[in-house]
Design brief:
about 350 residues; alpha/beta; DHBP synthase; Rossmann fold; eight-stranded mixed sheet; four-stranded parallel sheet; 14 strands; binds threonylcarbamoyladenylate; binds magnesium ion
């Protein structure tokens, strides 16, 4: 594997069949050589490498600046390939696969010997997902091996939901970024641990707890306030649980307010000026003009999720002193959104 200095990634589109075939072939060629390639999925863009090769996976950690003990999700096409990556395939896995695959659900299962330590953080389990995005599926098929793929962003930063986001944060480090358009789901997959009894939610996502429970019965909540302390020795059980994660560069706060003067008072009490503040609102539209920017976000959780990271990336570009997100409803349908907002606002 070559070590490269600053370069600029080749960005290949995948809009028409010819272009897509070329993009898939080029991606598969690099992946066979043990290289990392940025690829679209329906959730967020992934930074992919051959999940069966420790050296290729090591490159992902190096590129992301990610702690070496974080497990990485393995992407497959088909239940057959998933079963080759897992040492056991319980009935719960079968049921969930039938209900939600291909799609934004990751199942944690005992790993098989084809999955190296580098993927699992040295732990005994592997996270498996069959993504719905056609480009990702075609690349996995062309490779014939599963792809380890964390989100294609530097560790702890916001996940990318467009090829442009990947170019901005990692373009200088990569050889190839495949542009599959904006991600239709927009937040990372739901992660459920099937080695726990009952199964345990590790990361909420668009596949909700209620949807999982309708298929496999009771599912436990994520461990409270996440972070099993990183003692520097043991594999981190699920780094999505680390509080500061999925964060924009700018400070972010999630607030509700009575009216504009209430909002202005809260800012003033923190020594902040509206002209340096961005508002991401749902219902309460204060008069425009005084703010650095005001953007309205959608009312339903699925559309909100699709828009959220793009809005945060754009907000970061304006370098505000604060991004204020209007608090969404505190009901289960918004669980995954609340999870990401809490992490984005963690100090
Ligand atoms: O939507 C997604 O899942 C995206 C796209 C690219 O597919 N991928 C993604 O990967 O978010 P990453 O590596 O950024 O996040 C992996 C999440 C972490 O919370 C990690 O802890 C959890 O999945 N995970 C992966 N393997 C695990 C395992 N063996 N045990 C527990 N958690 C695991
Ligand atoms: Mg990530």
């Amino acid at each position: 594997m070559n070590r490269r200095g600053p370069t600029t990634a080749e960005v290949v589109g995948a809009r028409d069949p010819g272009e897509r075939a070329r993009a898939v072939a080029r991606a598969a060629e690099l992946l066979r050589q043990g290289e990392a390639v940025a690829l679209p999925t329906e959730t967020v863009y992934g930074l992919a490498a051959d999940a069966t090769r420790a050296d290729a996976v090591a490159r992902l950690f190096e590129l992301k600046g990610r702690p070496g003990r974080n497990p990485i999700i393995v992407h497959v096409v088909g239940v057959e390939m998933a079963r080759r990556c897992a040492a056991e395939w319980p009935r719960t896995a079968d049921r969930l696969a039938r209900a939600f695959w291909p799609g934004p659900l990751t199942m944690v299962l005992p790993r098989s010997p084809i999955i190296p330590d580098a993927v699992t953080g040295g732990g005994p389990t592997v996270g498996l997902r069959w993504p719905a995005h056609p480009v990702m599926q075609e690349v996995i098929q062309a490779c014939g091996f599963p792809l380890a793929a964390p989100s294609a962003n530097p560790s702890q930063a916001l996940s990318p939901t467009s090829a442009e986001h990947v170019v901005k944060s990692m373009g200088h480090q990569l050889r190839l970024i495949v542009d599959g358009g904006p991600c239709p789901v927009g937040i990372e997959s739901t992660v459920v641990d099937l080695t726990a009894h009952p199964p345990r939610l590790l990361r909420p996502g668009i596949v909700s707890t209620a949807a999982l429970e309708a298929v496999i019965g009771a599912v436990d909540d994520p461990p409270r306030e996440g972070a099993p302390a990183d003692d520097g020795v043991h594999p981190l059980h699920s780094p999505g649980q680390m509080l500061k994660h999925y964060a924009p560069r700018s400070p972010l706060a999630v607030w509700s307010w009575q009216d504009v003067s209430d909002l202005a008072r809260r800012l003033a009490s923190q020594g902040l000026s509206p002209s340096r503040t961005i508002l991401l609102i749902q219902r309460q539209m204060p008069a425009a003009g005084r703010w650095l920017a005001i953007r309205q976000l959608p009312h339903d959780p699925a559309s909100f999720a699709r828009a959220l990271y793009a809005e945060l990336h754009q907000s970061d570009d304006l370098d505000p002193d604060l991004i204020v997100v209007e608090a969404p409803p505190s009901i289960p349908a918004w669980q995954a959104i609340w999870d990401r907002l809490r992490r984005a606002s963690a100090k």
